[in-house]
């Protein structure tokens, strides 16, 4: 019976994201919530209404899946990494100052809020990773730091709430304020280009994955990922013998580095569906960790301070981004798109470009986002270690 339940659990966790993605495309209000938050809701509900099988085998399935999904996702999402030597001056400056702005904001806010937040250095590291990269970086750093799944889910929910508020502010007033403070270049409003990018972002990203060519690409990329994980695990084991208790940190950093290195190999880089497959693993991770949460056991006393810390970081990082842009004479739209890309992640770039009526920032914004995905893990674990 335990074997049957285990199989059913694995099937449910692996297929639930597909169902949620389908709903997000078919039901407008669910699409606005987004697949990750919906998966958190579903996971938390099934965890607390008693329909999950109880017993050791359930916990083992949850632990196995939550531990495996992130290492599988990281290389797959980095294979599409592209570094362009021809990036413009403003884009390069915005890219670097945006990363620095988040780090400085986290360090500045830490002494103000740390005493009110449990494991504050871990929270700071996870949010640094998330606000420079994205969900995958936050998940990776949480594993490196040994953060419990339910705590990760709670922290990620706070991020979604605060970052959504930040996005609304940018669209309502932030763009106008930045243009009054910073130079404005001639706007290049190619509505068709923005619409095309928004439509591309809104389409089913997995369309064509089950064709012969799609399956071949995914299998090749998964094979490379397995090799990378094997090398990373060997490196982590070696380092943990020198520095006990550091396996996960060195393992994640190793596969991040190897994933970036592999992206420079053309035969790997040109393969399709790497990012999408990696993101699907993150969706599985999301519902699994949420299903481990016992809401009654969670401590919500530090919630306001954690949200306050996150809001402080986002406001201060934007302020620093604008001030450095003023100093280096970076134009307003490039500075704002860099901040949005880091804080909210690359999928929001077309929306903000449309709000700006400036298609010129599309590619800079997306390029900055890829750099953020690559840098997030390093910066997150560095900050957590320095503040610990």
Q: Can you put this structure into words, describing what you see?
A:
- The chain is mainly alpha-helical and 388 residues long.
- It has one domain.
- The protein has 17 helices and no strands.
- Helix 4 crosses helix 10 (212-242), helix 4 (56-78) runs antiparallel to helix 13 and helix 14 (303-328) runs antiparallel to helix 15 (332-344).
How much of the sequence lies in strands comes to under 5%
| Helix content, binned percent | over 70%
Largest sheet: none
Number of domains: 1
The gross shape turns out to be: globular
Low-confidence segments? none
Number of β-strand runs: 0
Taken in chain order, the helices and strands follow as HHHHHHHHHHHHHHHHH
Rg from Cα:
21 Å
Mean pLDDT figure: 86
The chain-level structural class is: mainly alpha
The N- to C-terminal Cα distance equals 45 Å
How many helical elements? Answer: 17
Please describe the structure with a list of short key phrases separated by commas or semicolons.
mainly alpha, 388 residues, 17 helices, single chain
Topology:
Elements: H1 2-26, H2 28-33, H3 35-48, H4 56-78, H5 89-113, H6 120-132, H7 135-145, H8 149-181, H9 191-202, H10 212-242, H11 247-262, H12 266-269, H13 274-291, H14 303-328, H15 332-344, H16 349-356, H17 362-387
Short recap of the structure:
With 388 residues, the chain is mainly alpha-helical. The protein has one domain.
């Amino acid at each position: 019976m335990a074997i049957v339940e285990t199989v059913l659990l694995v099937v449910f966790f692996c297929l639930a994201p597909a169902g949620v993605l389908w709903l997000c495309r078919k039901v407008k209000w669910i699409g606005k919530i987004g697949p990750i938050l919906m998966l958190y809701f579903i996971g938390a509900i099934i965890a607390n209404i008693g329909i999950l099988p109880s017993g050791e085998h359930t916990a083992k399935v949850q632990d196995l899946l939550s531990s495996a999904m992130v290492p599988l996702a990281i290389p797959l999402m980095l294979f599409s990494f592209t570094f362009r030597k021809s990036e413009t001056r403003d884009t390069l400056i915005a890219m670097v100052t945006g990363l620095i702005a988040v780090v400085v904001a986290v360090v500045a806010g830490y002494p103000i809020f740390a005493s009110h937040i449990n494991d504050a250095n871990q929270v700071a590291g996870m949010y640094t990773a998330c606000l420079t990269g994205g969900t995958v970086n936050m998940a990776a750093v949480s594993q490196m730091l040994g953060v419990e799944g339910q705590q990760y889910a709670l922290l990620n929910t706070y991020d979604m709430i605060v970052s959504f508020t930040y996005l609304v502010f940018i669209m309502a007033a932030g763009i106008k304020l930045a243009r009054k403070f910073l130079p404005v270049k001639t706007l290049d409003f190619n509505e068709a280009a923005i619409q095309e990018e928004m439509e591309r972002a809104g389409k089913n990203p997995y369309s064509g994955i089950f064709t012969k060519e799609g399956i071949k690409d995914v299998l090749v990329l998964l094979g490379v990922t397995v090799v990378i994980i094997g090398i990373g695990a060997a490196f982590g084991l070696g380092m943990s013998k020198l520095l006990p208790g550091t396996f996960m940190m060195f393992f994640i950093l190793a596969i991040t580095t190897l994933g970036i290195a592999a992206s420079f190999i053309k035969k790997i880089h040109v393969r399709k569906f790497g990012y999408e497959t990696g993101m699907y693993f993150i969706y599985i991770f999301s519902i699994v960790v949420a299903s481990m949460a016992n809401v009654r056991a969670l401590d919500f006393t530090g919630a306001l301070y954690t949200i306050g810390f996150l809001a402080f970081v986002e406001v201060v990082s934007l302020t620093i981004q604008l001030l450095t842009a003023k100093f280096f004479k970076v134009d307003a739209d490039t500075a704002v798109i860099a901040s949005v890309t880091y804080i909210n992640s690359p999928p929001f770039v077309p929306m903000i470009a449309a709000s700006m009526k400036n298609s010129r920032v599309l590619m800079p914004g997306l390029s900055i986002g890829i750099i953020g995905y690559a840098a997030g893990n390093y910066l997150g674990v560095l900050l957590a270690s320095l503040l610990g």
